[in-house]
């Protein structure tokens, strides 16, 4: 089977809610990473077969196939198409999968994969907020088929995070210690310039602005999101704004355009789990991916497991045996933010750069997604 290679990857700095990127139109936000990617690779943009970008809540400035409008907003060729996809939090990781699959099928040679999200302008689950105007708690809540299968149970990521903490016996103190480590790791990474190679500054904005100077004492003082619960804002990912993009190429394109690949897509898969539990998907998906790839957890040098909530990653580490010293070593969504549509390629961009910095060979990325889904990508540094 033909190989799929990562040629380059780039992202904007991540802006906090209401921060440096809040006023940027979503198309311009996506365009920034696309333009930077084309400049960095030196590839003739008219040679790109397709542009696939993840984005959730595609209303307002994110409506109307924002992948296509972002490409055009960047001043790039009319003849190159674009498509926007939504696999919830895993949208841009899925964009990488579709891009790699296009290359591995032999039907495409150069595909841009990425994602964007301006959560300051378009609130999380904005489509659901619109549905609320019509009396729906979720867009699918009134489906007779859904209700026949799952009943009237509320589908909520916050409920899921609490359920996971209870089932895996993860205390609030455990989660706060994990969240504190995320901030410390992110602040260290920024201080040491580990993100410099992957960030395309937006004007004078060049450094992720979500990591906080916090303490375990400050976290302990917060009220839980639900009465008597363990989940607080301190152990959840931050609402934020960003875009990210990477170029996926075939072996033929590498030769034709004189490119130097940075990594190879070693494995890609996606699995589902119980949608009521929702956030447990990475556990099953990781087990499946390692079995399909003929690998063990010990074969992986670095992991990125998205920090939607601390309980998600802690349960995943308990089940898979992934050691914390190899997981989210530069911080995760709790510290760096989780701009939903952009997070998949943001994580992969960071994973690629960290493999290069440390000399690791294999990196595994996974993330929980709405509907109880999870993508897994294993990349091999070249």
Automatic annotation (TrEMBL):
GO terms for molecular function: acyltransferase activity, transferring groups other than amino-acyl groups. It holds the Pfam family Thiolase_C. The keyword Repeat does not apply. Residues 260-381 form the Thiolase C-terminal domain. PROSITE patterns: THIOLASE_2 (PS00737). Residues 5-251 form the Thiolase N-terminal domain. It comes from the Bacteria. The keyword Transferase applies. Coiled coil: none annotated. Keywords: Acyltransferase, Transferase. The active site is at residues 89, 338, 368. Belongs to the thiolase-like superfamily. Thiolase family. This is Acetyl-CoA acetyltransferase.
């Amino acid at each position: 089977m033909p190989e799929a290679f990562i040629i380059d990857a780039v992202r904007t700095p991540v802006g906090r809610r209401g921060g440096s990127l809040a006023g940027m139109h979503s198309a311009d936000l996506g365009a920034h990473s696309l333009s930077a990617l084309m400049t960095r690779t030196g590839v003739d943009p008219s040679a790109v077969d397709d542009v696939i970008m993840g984005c959730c809540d595609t209303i307002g400035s994110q409506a109307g196939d924002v992948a296509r409008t972002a490409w055009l907003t960047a001043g790039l060729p009319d003849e190159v198409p674009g498509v926007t996809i939504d696999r919830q939090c895993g949208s841009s990781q899925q964009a990488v999968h579709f891009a790699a699959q296009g290359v591995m099928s032999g039907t495409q040679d150069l595909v841009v994969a990425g994602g964007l999200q301006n959560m300051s302008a378009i609130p999380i689950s904005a489509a659901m907020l619109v549905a609320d105007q019509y009396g729906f708690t979720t867009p699918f809540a009134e489906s007779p088929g859904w209700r026949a299968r799952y009943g009237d149970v509320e589908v909520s990521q916050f409920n899921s995070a609490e359920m996971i903490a209870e089932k895996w016996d993860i205390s609030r103190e455990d989660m706060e210690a994990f969240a504190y480590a995320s901030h410390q790791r992110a602040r260290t990474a920024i201080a040491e310039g580990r993100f410099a190679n992957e960030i395309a500054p937006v004007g004078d904005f060049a450094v992720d602005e979500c990591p906080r100077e916090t303490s375990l004492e400050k976290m302990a003082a917060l009220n839980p999101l639900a009465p008597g619960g363990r989940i607080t804002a301190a152990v959840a990912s931050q609402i934020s704004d960003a875009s990210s993009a990477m170029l996926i190429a075939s072996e033929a394109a590498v030769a034709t355009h004189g490119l130097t690949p940075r990594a190879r897509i070693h494995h890609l898969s996606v699995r589902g789990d119980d949608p009521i539990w929702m956030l447990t998907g990475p556990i099953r998906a990781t087990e499946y991916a390692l079995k399909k790839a003929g690998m063990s957890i010990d074969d992986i040098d670095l992991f990125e497991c998205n920090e939607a909530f601390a309980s998600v990653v802690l349960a995943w580490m308990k089940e898979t045996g992934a050691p914390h010293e190899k997981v989210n070593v530069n911080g995760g969504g709790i510290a760096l933010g989780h701009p939903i549509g952009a997070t998949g390629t943001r994580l992969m961009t960071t994973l690629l750069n960290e493999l290069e910095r440390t000399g690791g060979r294999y990196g595994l990325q996974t993330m929980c997604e709405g509907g109880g889904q999870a993508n897994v990508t294993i990349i091999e540094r070249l």
